[in-house]
## 1
Amino acid sequence: KAGVTQTPRYLIKTRGQQVTLSCSPISGHRSVSWYQQTPGQGLQFLFEYFSETQRNKGNFPGRFSGRQFSNSRSEMNVSTLELGDSALYLCASSASSGSVAGANVLTFGAGSRLTVL
Amino acid sequence: AQTVTQSQPEMSVQEAETVTLSCTYDTSESDYYLFWYKQPPSRQMILVIRQEAYKQQNATENRFSVNFQKAAKSFSLKISDSQLGDAAMYFCAYRPDGATNKLIFGTGTLLAVQP
């Protein structure tokens, strides 16, 4: 069974540009979450999607946005990039979004490393 | 707001020995879930173990076990018979009950395993 696939793995952008990151969840998983990992702030929740609907959003500016498609694949977009957006962006998928025991284990992808110059 | 604290930025253990990583959390909720994730240099986060707050029994997965103290809001991870492959960053994470997969992570503990 294929895992969570994130593309691209590495990318370099300059300030002011925008970037789109892609995440393909495990087949059958309907929930996708995004996290930003930086040395200074650690792991921070960006947003979560379930069946094409945003269920939760973290405390990030409006420059950060995302969406989920009918096949559960998700994209996140960061516009007007700033130096502080340099980070590892992690995507995670889960079979459902609810309180059913065992169904809420997140499986993470390998991440997309964004460097903003 | 819920918070997760890992007070040990770095730990070291000899191969085959036992090590305990600490984690405390703050929440006013009674039902929630706790996790330990491992992130090796390859960056892929891997679930080590999870604990449901309503279960009094401590979770165990092979060489990994937890000491869950709900009243003290403590959730430590014990690694027995440490192996070189256990070297990684370990994150403690909290997830509230309900329709969400939002995890709140601690700052992590970097574990080194000495041969």
## 2
Amino acid sequence: AQKVTQAQTEISVVEKEDVTLDCVYETRDTTYYLFWYKQPPSGELVFLIRRNSFDEQNEISGRYSWNFQKSTSSFNFTITASQVVDSAVYFCALSAVNDYKLSFGAGTTVTVRA
Amino acid sequence: NAGVTQTPKFQVLKTGQSMTLQCAQDMNHEYMSWYRQDPGMGLRLIHYSVGAGITDQGEVPNGYNVSRSTTEDFPLRLLSAAPSQTSVYFCASSGRTLWSTDTQYFGPGTRLTVL
């Protein structure tokens, strides 16, 4: 069985602060994908990143960065110099490589105050 | 491409009523699925389909039916609505790469309230 845990329910920061979202997962699969999705107040789910379990390199995309550590089963997400538009619910998710079914964490609500 | 579309955006039902949530995609994706989102629980898989004529149950299938007669459409039917089915429903679709599944993309969601 797969399980994704996002221990932080809510995070509130002031604009320009950095914020790190934790994601810990459990899986028996040897190959798998990890995902982050963003759900802004408008309600849609926006895909941010997919990472293969083979690739433990950290990734940076603009103000977003992801730290994947297989040894601790974690896939953390950092927003640098946060902005009000980053206010959203962020979901971490997991699937086996050849399985379409996604297992989601409960989500972390990020509020960025001006 | 319109991507994944869902109708309606909002719906209010009375207990015992039935209805169908519509989902369509124009990306020729083989895989489609339905999730429900409840506060504090993330998204949970209701039903999924790996191609026309093939469907299977996810984590929370009770009270819902699906069918997949075409690649494009994957409707979700509530047979007899219950207040516990009050939720936001998301449809998703995905294709494949040469050697694995591809990323799933989600529709805009349907907010359902059952009174």
